[in-house]
Design a protein that fits this description.
Helix content: 55-70%
Radius of gyration: 25 Å
Largest sheet: 2 strands, parallel
Structural class: mainly alpha
Strand order of the largest sheet: 1-2
Order of helices and strands: HHHHHHHHHHHHHHHHHHHEHEHHHHH
Number of helices: 25
Number of strands: 2
Distance between the termini: 41 Å
Strand content: under 5%
Amino acid sequence: MLQEKSIFWKEINNNPYIFVNLVFAFFPFSFILGSLFVNLNLLLFCCLGIFYLRSKILRTKYDLIIKIIFLFFLIVFLSTTLNVIKSYYFDGHHSDIYLDQFLKSIFFFRYFLFLIITYLLNKYDILDFKYFFLAAAFAATLVSIDLIYQYIFGFNLIGLENPFPSTGVADKDKPISFWTERLALYPRNSGFFGDEYIAGGYIQRFAFFTIFSVIFLFKNKSYTKFIFLLTIICILGVGILFAGNRTPLILFIFGLFLIFLFNLKIKKILFISLISLLTILTFIISSNKSYKHNFHNLFVHIKSMSYLPATIIWPQLKKIDEQPPEIKKFFYQVRKVRLETWHERLFLTAIDTWKFNKIYGNGIKSFRNVCHKLGERKGINMEERMYTNIRPVAPEEVFYFGKKNRLCSNHPHNYYLEILTETGAIGLIIISIIALMFIIFLFKNYKLINKISLENFVLLSAIISLLVEAIPVRSSGSLFTTNNATYLILIASIILSYKKILKIKIE
């Protein structure tokens, strides 16, 4: 053990690029500290990268995929610029909001610079992803243990208490709102994140680096690998559950199923671990009324969303009573059982706002501003609250019949709909091309990715993390925020370095 530690420190001391590697490896911790630290981390890393690379940034011949990614950044800038010009010189709107959008479209290019620098530093043997790999694994495990500790004792490892502990019952004396209901009814723990309930999403994003680090560290010790892998998967899953974030838990379980697609000789261990995790989660949820209500509500929303196509058709059937009995019965049944969720209303609002500028979109960070224009149109209801999760809902409260029920927010809560409404059809087509090239890459390099090595596990962790993060039907944060954009570019840069990672000769 002492010998291994000595070798590790010797490697650090003999590595002339250790500082830039440690700065890159610090990203998982900067996400915990907040957006300010993420931006500082990003700035420091880019400055170091420019110092080491210098003219290589301009002299390097880049792959087609990187050029296409740059095209997306360019479309974000051009879309925003066109909308700012239109608002200032044609519509006569001289608000600071449009200037702010224009500046954000320029600063958004820093993420492309981050992508290029990460790619080149790895290409020229300056950046080694193994430091980040181990840091991400440690951070996800630490956050998971911290959440479990906070759930048991009421405060986390550094003494932070949960700012909004769940009571299991909403206070009838307080004004009812969507968020007060959620905080009252749904058990949540924030851990190191203070008053932000995003710990579950954080674990989900770095969980697969943890899982593959365990597989690699104990690759030659079957029994030890079984014990540690079973333990770590359960800790990660329970940590996400105690965070109170339902979508990350579903995505984490989905990611575990994705690992089965790769021939890593751990399918039996993974299957037992998955069954054990599901058993533990089922026991916790079934024995806790708040958790049971939380996931029951999720099931109701999913069932409700399944009726969305029917409600889109509904307005076209102006005389429902004149329709055939089967159709009439079906639509009235939908009316009785269906609730319009706020996610659904946001998704439909995004589609409506896209129609303002179908080709090039409305510009970066424009959704909140543009969606309010819908309220000026006839036949559209923009009331925020439509139903409550606490009391039974009468059928007449579910819909405002004869109107389109829409909702404004900072963003549409879906990456692809945000791309559609803010960069238009052009932006969505570019992202679709990138996604298609990613799928082709997976099929083309499937056998190479399956090889057992540290480099391959780093790549495989990034691939599964990106697949889980980029699921089209999931709800998500805004693509254009600091944390989300940095994370996606960070993961994408690892995958784009696959030629170096897989030891393929670079042409």
